[in-house]
Amino acid sequence: MTNGAKTIQLPQPQKDSGKSISYCLQNRTSTKEFDNTKTLSEQQIANILWAAYGFNRADKRTAPSAMNCQEFTMYVFLPEGIYRWNDTQNELVLIEEGDLRYLTGGQDYVADAAMNIVYVADYAKMESIAKESQVAMAYADCGLIAQNVYLYCASENLGCVIRGYIDRPTVEKRLNLHTSSKVILSQTIGFKK
Ligand SMILES: Cc1cc2nc3c(=O)[nH]c(=O)nc-3n(C[C@H](O)[C@H](O)[C@H](O)COP(=O)(O)O)c2cc1C
Fold this sequence. Notes:
This protein is of the alpha+beta class. It has one domain (7-190): NADH Oxidase (3-Layer(aba) Sandwich), CATH 3.40.109. The protein is built from 5 helices and 7 strands; from the N terminus they run E-H-H-E-E-E-H-E-H-E-H-E. It has a 7-stranded antiparallel β-sheet with strand order 1-4-3-2-5-7-6, sandwiched between helices. Helix 1 crosses helix 4 (131-156) and helix 2 packs across helix 4 (131-156). The chain is globular and about 45 Å long.
């Protein structure tokens, strides 16, 4: 897709397509076997990211967030490298070149599937929430984002699975995250076998 470009301007997400919400709910499922011969197009990536956590109003998103903290940043692990989604510019910013998909989980399918998203919450953005509730709220917010991806994938007959099984310290180090930012969950997306 990207050939190691430093910044990839993604196409505008397609907001006027897809199957009915009832169809998507009926077909929402976790996939754990992926066809590793296919890659996602930039259009598909743009659509997935927008469905997950894109802006559907000037300053709010497709997923709700506790106290409107909007604490998530999404890191996209593709065969070409790791990218941070710059959500306001709709571009992928290269963090590290190379196929590092395997870092995002312990299951074999992680390294094979077209894309893994790592969801990172910045607790510094959650100061309006009592400290003892911040972790619970971040995980709840992440679940809502992940469900958007599940429904998008159901509509497009793509496979996906949300995953808690991820080596958080290793990934946090590799992404060079600030200490207030923590890996919450990861989600694998790709083509069904
Ligand atoms: C919070 C959460 C964490 C999960 N972690 C993993 C995981 O690490 N690895 C995995 O293969 N599946 C994981 N799953 C997917 C579940 O295995 C899956 O949702 C469950 O088997 C039900 O299947 P379904 O999603 O098709 O209904 C997770 C699901 C949730 C909600």
